[in-house]
Amino acid sequence: MIFLKIVKKGHSKHIYQQIYEELKKSILERKITVNEKLPSKRNLAEQLNVSVNSVSNAYEQLLAEGYIYTIERKGYFVENITQYIDQHEARAVNFPIDLKEQHHDKGGWLSLSHMTSDISMFPFKKWLKCQNEAIKNHRQELSEITSPQGPYIVRKTISRMIALTRGVKCEPEQIIIGGGTQPLVRQFMTLLKGNTKVAIENPGYSRIHALLKSMKFDVAPINLDKKGIDMKEIESINPKILFITPSHQFPTGIIMPISRRIELLNWAAHSNDRYIVEDDYDSEFKYGTDNIPSLQSLDRHHRVIYTGTFSKTLLPSFRISYIVLPPKLLREYRNFYSNWIQGSNSFSLFTLHYFIESGEYERHIKRMNHHYEMKRKLLIKQLQATFKDDIEIKNVPAGLHFLAHFKKNKRYEDINEKAKQEKLEIYSIERFNLDSKYKKDETSISLVMGFATIKTEEIPEAVNRLYRIIN
Ligand SMILES: Cc1ncc(COP(=O)(O)O)c(C=O)c1O
Predict the structure, then answer these.
(1) Fewer CB in 10 Å around end: N or C, the chain?
(2) Ligand 1 pocket check: which of 205, 278, 348, 453 to mutate, most ligand atoms within 8 Å of Cβ?
(3) DSSP 357-415
């Protein structure tokens, strides 16, 4: 006779779940012995005064999970279940406090982050219309996984677009779409042998620097001169792969002149295992000049790996980025990643395709160019009016951020602490200094000022907070 505690009314669990759990407990605690026969479904149902169905469902679940076994025409028996070596349940110990995530209330905060775009101007209605087109025209493909490189028609659209706007010369076959620049860089850098020496601009994009280091590459930060990355240092360090942001150096804003671009391409052309990774992250935004052609457009020897993103032009939360690989690397990529599953959401990618094809993307960028230009000017004006002679702004009319130097000697730790108190999101140059031997300039503070997300009417308040932080 088996005793099970079953509550028929007011219990949060179904009767069959209660029978299942009670039996499971008895089996695990060896209250029912190994190979013991369980009562027939009908007998147990009568004993508990429940339906045969409830007992049947409980037995089926126990059978599926391996607690019992069945012998045809004989009934159900208890399995010999492997015991844990250690009866102590370590998981019951509290979750480590240092791994707990802090959820900050963003209420009252203002942001001068460079990692944002302005959602107030995003044409969601148009985007939804393009989503409908994607559903209408790609029903079948939405039920399948796509090519490892992303849907071909989306790559074709991107290749046409970057040919027009950035002069990038490529076939759709050369494009690989991914959920961010970092995962894409990780993918193609995996193709390179260990011990490869790579170099990156300093100051530069710390996330890529950290990624390369985590991949155990020998990473050398290279200083900048007025034209961008320093050629002499490149020659002396002699890297195989060079990471640069020639359209709008991150974070200083330098636009690399044509002569340095050609010097770099000549350097890369010297050997067929040298590559330049051109991170073209925000080149769509130029105020007062036309777009400057990409480095890839000038490359005559397939030495440039181009990376682009929709994080600045659309929204960073969409996570749509892409790379353009030269044919030799593409062949290696295809061999290595033949079993790869594309990581981006095809629904968003088809939507993007219609967004570009309908001309909406181009119109959006034009609108955003005017809007960002206006905000940029306003922020600069407000900063100059507030800080007067104590500020020097690197006024490069491009992108979604600029660098500002404040004549003040303060530690960045104190600036960050004060920024928290003032509820202002800001990023100092320290974050982007990649050289471990870096020493702070004693006479000034340098901040990367992003103006994408801040609302026009919030600019004066943000600058007031900044004034209190710095002074
Ligand atoms: C220098 C730089 N490169 C690339 C990116 C784009 O990254 P993702 O495509 O992963 O959004 C950013 C984003 O802020 C950036 O600052």
Answers:
(1) N
(2) 205
(3) HTTHHHHHHHHHHHHHHHHHHHHHHHHHHHHGGGEEEE---BSSEEEEEES----HHHH
Return the SS3 of 191: coil
Answer yes or no: is the C-beta of 159 below 6 A from any ligand 1 atom. no
Which tens digit of pLDDT belongs to each residue from 137-181? 999 999 999 999 999 999 999 999 999 999 999 999 999 999 999
Instruction: Report residue 339 CA to chain centroid gap.
Output: 22
Which letter, b or e, does each residue of 285-312 get, where b requires 16 or more Cβ atoms within 10 Å of its Cβ? bbeeeeebbbbbbbbeebbbbbbbbbbb
Quickly tell me which residue has 């009562």 as its tokens: 39
Residues 68 and 62 sit within 8 Å (Cβ to Cβ): yes
Sequence-distant (≥ 6) Cβ neighbours of residue 92 within 8 angstroms: none
Domains and CATH numbers, the chain: 1-96 (1.10.10.10), 110-117+363-470 (3.90.1150.10), 124-358 (3.40.640.10)
Q: pLDDT tens for residues 380-425?
A: 999 999 999 999 998 899 999 999 999 999 999 999 999 999 999 9
What CA–CA distance (Å, rounded) separates 103 from 111? 17
Question: And the tokens for 88?
Answer: 């102590």
pTM of structure = 0.91
Q: Which two tokens stand for residue 291?
A: 């777009």
Q: Among 244, 254, 282, name the best residue to mutate to test ligand 1's pocket (greatest count of ligand atoms within 8 A of Cβ).
A: 282
